[in-house]
Amino acid sequence: DDDVTLNWTTATETNNSGFEIQRLKDSNIEKLNEWEVIGFVHGNGTTTEPQTYFYKDENLSVGKYQYRLKQIDFDGTFEYSNIVDAEILPPIKFSLEQNFPNPFNPSTIIQYSVPGKQIVQMKVFDVLGNEIATLINEEKSAGSYEIQFNAPNLSSGIYYYKITAGEFVQTKKMILMK
Fold first, then answer.
1. Which of 42, 60, 61, 103 is most buried, judged by most C-beta within 10 A?
2. Per-residue pLDDT tens for 121-153?
3. Is 67 exposed, middle or buried (0-12, 13-18, 19+ CB in 10 A)?
């Protein structure tokens, strides 16, 4: 989906403080070469046993990424790993997911995907078809998104949310239970 999980193993470790996780995104890969530090995973000091590690980079936008590890010893010396490439691809079709939680009180999350640049509208309606709220009315690039619908002033009941993007139209039901 929109996540990259890095997994690595060490055969042995000597004075290993840990691993700084670094990332480059799209234009920085060819042009700036400025690595961004996105996390740190603690090492196991000194050990002769194999150790397995992982780091999950979540909710990434569409694009190409490069990752490397900076293994840092307790005395401050360091060494870089090889660079690995990853790519988050755009969705191949429109989608509108069921809100979660459902039933909800007073807020819920709605997820949707757009395969290409589009004007996207999302509206909420009551059971009589009256428009309650406009959640989105803007151009969106290809990608997966989520929006929070907060309804503290609405009455308990059934509501509908509808997405329109070009010729794609879909409606789903949600329940507000106070």
1. 60
2. 999 999 999 999 999 999 998 888 999 999 999
3. buried
Instruction: Give the Cα separation of 3 and 12 in Å (integer).
Output: 29
Residue 50 CB-density burial (10 A; 0-12 exposed, 13-18 middle, 19+ buried): exposed
**CA 13 to mean position of chain CA atoms:** 32
Two structure tokens written together for 76? 């401050």
Residue 136 CA, distance from chain mean position: 19
Q: At a CB cut-off of 8 Å and minimum separation 6, what does 159 contact?
A: 124, 125, 126, 127, 132, 151, 173, 174, 175, 176
CA distance 59 to 73: 30
